[in-house]
From TrEMBL:
Organism from which the protein derives: Vitis vinifera (Grape)
N6-(pyridoxal phosphate)lysine sites (modified residues): 252
Name of the protein in question: Aminotransferase class I/classII large domain-containing protein
Source taxonomy: Eukaryota, Viridiplantae, Streptophyta, Embryophyta, Tracheophyta
Highest rank taxon of the organism: Eukaryota
Cofactor requirements of the protein: pyridoxal 5'-phosphate
Length: 419
């Protein structure tokens, strides 16, 4: 570059975005991955992010693949889709979600998005009017914080309580909320904790939100992926207590995160979201953003109708098995404690006791050295709001996971403080 060019050109990148994006899980994982030792001949074991689609045992249902082919071949989906999504897909999702609700959703309650990620972006944009604030769980999903920061929406964090099976600290929620609070977010089944909220707890969440006059955003991207004692209860069940906006996608249950098909659904039998103008703003924003690919939308009815229960139960039993391997394997590592066996989703939060280790400063140092010495990638807890915790994703092929847990164990033994 010519000397002085930077002075001549007045443009700059938007640094608000740079700062917001620096808190994403991907950014932290990238750093951990960059510390891998290329000399290590063993395969790299990635337990950092929940995308098991690369493993043959987690391959999606053949019915879903056929649905895509059929949609393309039909030539019915070559045009631009409507901003809110194609009607057959909206109808299929409304029916799919209504089976677990005490009332029926209409296709008009459903808005199609580019994965659940864009549904998060959509609701954050819709709520980000000047002065507003939103309550987010800690630990949580860093995407919410990054998008809130990027859109100048103030966020406040309430705790999930490890000693109470990661339930929401409802007293904390009440203490954080003020007259500018617009919503609280829950993620159920939980990422990163692998917990599944009970019917009773969800009802209390709804009652608390009603008392505060806020809506509940329920991230149910892991909906139905449960393998413990609590069944999956959608937050929409309590939509008549307080308005609920449900976010979801086919990414996790069908193990096709790359297909980028998600939804935002209004669960609001009392019509409060419409009266408050939220629905109007949702439609406004959909007018000016990108849509999910048309033939993926077109395939949705078949994907939902034709996927067999066999597929779902096979995936759930596989996740249950990998959760066991992870929990049992970590149980005999002294510097790691796992407060609860995961009962859903794909990851677990475990506490790291650095005082039992010789030369490890904190969670990030642990992950960086583990990457270098054992070629195992896990996420440092600070990335999801909890310093000196670790998030481990167990949704991988069982032998691979066993190998990974074995290497973590060897690493901890090698770094243990000598008595
Ligand atoms: C994976 C994930 C998402 C994003 O889902 P996509 O459909 O892949 O965009 C949103 N929320 C949580 C909690 C997730 O784990």
């Amino acid at each position: 570059m010519e000397n002085g060019a930077a002075e001549r050109w007045g443009f700059r990148g938007n640094q608000v975005l740079d700062k917001a994006a620096s808190i994403t899980v991907r950014g932290v994982l990238r750093k951990v991955i960059s510390n891998l030792n290329p000399q290590d001949r063993r395969p790299v074991i990635t337990l950092g992010q929940g995308d098991p689609s690369a493993f043959s045992c987690f391959r999606t249902a053949p019915e879903a693949e056929e649905a895509i082919v059929d949609a393309v071949r039909s030539r019915e989906f070559d045009s631009y889709p409507p901003d809110v999504g194609v009607l057959p897909a909206r109808r299929a999702i409304a029916e799919y979600l209504s089976t677990d609700l005490p009332y029926k959703l209409s296709p008009d309650d459903v808005y199609l998005t580019v994965g659940c990620g864009q549904a998060i972006e959509l609701i954050i944009k819709v709520l980000a009017r000047p002065g507003a604030n939103i309550l987010l769980p800690r630990p949580g999903y860093a995407f919410y914080e990054a998008l809130a920061a990027a859109n100048h929406l103030e966020f406040r964090r309430f705790d999930l309580l490890p000693e109470k099976v990661w339930e929401v600290d409802l007293e904390g929620v009440k203490a954080l909320a003020d007259e500018n609070t617009v919503a609280m977010v829950i993620i159920n089944p939980g990422n990163p904790c692998g917990n599944v909220f009970t019917h009773q707890h969800l009802k209390k969440v709804a009652e608390t939100a009603r008392m505060l006059g806020i809506l509940v955003i329920a991230d149910e991207v892991y909906g139905h992926l449960v393998f413990g004692s609590n069944p999956f209860v959608p937050m929409g069940v309590f939509g008549s207590i307080t308005p609920v906006i449900t976010l979801g996608s086919i990414s996790k249950r069908w193990i096709v995160p790359g297909w980028r098909l998600g939804w935002l659904v209004t669960n609001d039998p009392n019509g409060i979201l419409c009266k408050s103008g939220i629905v109007e703003t949702i439609v406004s924003y959909l007018n000016i953003c990108a849509d999910p690919t048309s033939f993926i939308q077109g395939a949705v009815p078949q994907i939902i109708e034709k996927t067999t229960d066999d597929f779902f139960s096979r995936i759930i039993s596989l996740l249950g098995k990998t959760a066991d391997i992870c929990f049992d394997g970590l149980a005999d590592i002294p510097c790691i404690t796992c407060p609860h066996k995961p009962e859903g989703a794909m990851s677990v939060m475990v506490k790291l006791n650095v005082s039992l280790l010789e030369d490890i400063d904190d969670d990030m140092d642990f992950c960086m050295k583990l990457s270098k010495e054992e070629s195992v990638i896990i996420l440092a807890g600070f990335a999801v709001g909890m310093k000196n915790w670790l998030r481990i994703t167990f949704a991988t092929e069982p032998p691979f996971l066993e190998d990974g847990i074995g290497r973590i164990k060897a690493f901890c033994q090698r770094h243990a403080k000598k008595q």
